[in-house]
Amino acid sequence: MLEFHEIAAIFPLMQNGEFETFKADIEQKGLLDPIVLYEGKILDGRNRYNALDALGRLDDIRTEDFEGTWNEAIEQVMSKNLHRRHLQQSQRGMAAATHIELYRGPAKERQVEGGHAGGMIGGRGQHKPVADPSIGIRPKDLKPIPSQSRDDAGAAFGCSGATVERCRRVRDKGANELAAAVLKGEVSAGAADVLIQYPKKKQSELVKDGKKAIKAAVAAKKTTQVRKATRKKKPPQLIATINSSIDALMKRIEQSIKGTGVQRTRAMDDLRLCQKHVKEACEFLV
């Protein structure tokens, strides 16, 4: 059995109907392109491998080794997958965020030699273990991606820099199941960015429960955020308005006792206005 290389996890595996169609094609035509290995693991050809495994035809596997550098291996995966796969914006954002974390520029290459690069642990050239192969490396403490880096990565992967940053936060703070769901296209980056405010156990449960549960949880969290923001900004203004309305109402009532029907009508209008402000205050202060 061959393992998947962590670089290959930049892009999601085929799921459900897409995989079944692909497997049928492999069954009919056989393995047309060899599976590419890097460091003894599958760099390109995971879906072909899974299809052959499902068909019980692993003996048909042909492999070839990729001889380039780590960064060249990343570029190989991008060139093979970026344009031939139909990916959603959120999937592209997660792939871009993973790409940034895996990519080693000249400075990082020098750090790797001393065993201090991000994504590395003690000793020379030892890779940090992957928490979940479906989403690649998950560094312990991710720093915000520089806007230029995320925008460049977003442009390369066909999504916005903001989407890349959302996906980075999901990879950093989200449960493995949530990050994997974004990569698979089951949850949008925007929704996942809201869900990471829940405990990780709750995030995993929501992914398991499906789209309706996720939609309700996102709506509930957004409502809570609005109310918290309103508590800080609006109560003094509302209270002042209510007090002013009450004062005006009292004067109108006094006038209406001795006044005409028109004055009484105005008093009733003021009463309704006051009731409206009271309801607004209750909504935002509860």
UniProtKB/TrEMBL annotation:
**Xref: InterPro entries:** ParB/Sulfiredoxin_sf (IPR036086)
Q: What is this protein called?
A: ParB/Sulfiredoxin domain-containing protein
